Amino acid sequence: MSITTLNMQTLRGRLSEIGVTRKYLDEMVLPEWWDDRIADDPSGLSEAQGLIGKALGLRRGWLAGVEDDPFRHFGPTKFKAPQNVTPEQLGWAKTISARIAEIAAHAMRELPIHLPISPSELRATLLETNKYVTLENLVETCWQLNIPVLHVGTFPDGRKPDGLAAFINNRPVIVLNRNESSTSWMGFILAHELGHICLGHLNVVNGTGLLVEDSMENIHLDDEDEIAANKFACEILTGEQDPILCVKQRISVNGLVRHSMELGETRAIAPGVIALNHGKQNNRWGAARSALKIIEGNTDAISIIHGAMIQHLDMSQLPDETVDYLFRMTGAELAE
Questions:
Q1: One domain for residues 221 and 314
Q2: Residue 65: pLDDT band by 50, 70, 90 thresholds?
Q3: H/E element holding 149?
Q4: With contact defined as beta carbons under 8 Å apart, do 238 and 277 qualify?
């Protein structure tokens, strides 16, 4: 197949074969002004291929029908996932998250990078002006350190890992994928991904490398990188690498809430983190979740991440169509 035999209908068909539905293409990828009739002209078809290729991280040659491999290669990639989850199953999340990271890295290109980061020093700095280490102040600090933090949670195949840690053109970027409202959960995931970056767990070649994290609940107990990143995150959030913050295995939900609030005050630990620690230590995730709902109320972790992105990312560094795509893919909204 050559570019002259393609049209928008056949292009949509080829995209459908690799999991990109018409709905996803129209709502998430193509700009609002797009009309398929534009592609009736060869230059219009070329424009469609460019828009789709940039948005989805697809090779222009594949879109033109002259290459077999559809996906761009963003550099060496480590996959942290259970044995029953293959890299191919995380392919769309990896590719689109890497594309978002690439956009953020471009918009941050003139700023210095502050690495490495000591978890104990970062915690001490945060507690100088905050009661606890929370998602909100941790996200803000990452941006102050010139490490972009973004959220993308919608992919063509619907699969959502927890997140991606990346170096793009020597710029560290974190893209969280989990659609999670709890600020304590998302704070831990962010601190964990920051740990991977600071501890040198990415295989960076020519300034680029990726690490895709499937699910924290399915973490490999014998994976040294995962253990180290967990310790890094726990030290930031609690001051200890291996905290045990609630020893009563059968504490009631209300009792767990009270314990978390009281211990949080004395130990400068966010109460939601204490509830989650209880869930992990005792395999009582249901109780931990119920306690979180009471402790955190109607928190919206993703809105916090979006707000920081809008505040800190220099949109003037990006073409208008790229900014539009960034907002569509992240779901962020500018305040009116």
A1: yes
A2: confident
A3: strand 149-151
A4: yes
Q: Are residues 238 and 114 in the same domain?
A: yes
For residues 213 and 192, give the distance between their C-alpha atoms in angstroms, rounded to a whole number.
Answer: 10
Q: Model confidence over 224-255: pLDDT tens digits?
A: 999 999 999 999 999 999 998 877 778 999 99
* Cα pseudo-dihedral 293, 299, 300, 304, rounded to 10: -140
The count of domains in the chain is: 2
Report how far residue 234's alpha carbon sits from residue 19's, in angstroms, rounded to the nearest whole number.
37
Pair 316, 226 in one domain: yes
Domain span including residue 59: 3-63
288, part of any domain: no
Per-residue buried b or exposed e for 25-34, using 16+ beta carbons within 10 Å of the residue's own CB: beebbbeeeb
Task: Give 157-180 as a DSSP string.
Answer: T----SEEEEEETTEEEEEE----
Cis peptide before 116 (omega within 30 of 0): yes
- Please state whether the predicted TM-score (pTM) of the whole model is above 0.85: yes
Angle 88-216-104 from CA coordinates, rounded to 5°:
65
Tokens encoding 1: 């197949």
- Is the pLDDT score of 4 beyond 60? no
Name, in order, each residue with C-beta under 8 angstroms of 185's C-beta and a sequence gap of 6 or more. 178, 272, 276, 292, 301
Q: Which of 233, 240, 220 is nearest to 184 (CA)?
A: 233
114 DSSP assignment: -
The pLDDT tens digits of the residues spanning 104-140 come to 999 987 778 888 889 999 999 999 999 999 999 999 9
Place of tokens 């070329």: 46
On whether residue 186 sits in a domain, the answer given is: yes
Do 47 and 112 fall into the same domain?
Answer: no
Helix, coil or strand: residue 80: strand
Residue with tokens 């690498």: 241
Q: Residue 83: inside a domain, yes or no?
A: yes
Instruction: Evaluate whether 215 touches 117 at the Cβ level (below 8 Å).
Output: no
Q: Are residues 326 and 182 both part of a single domain?
A: yes
| CA-to-CA separations, 225 to 2, 23, 219, 232, in angstroms, rounded | 45, 38, 11, 10
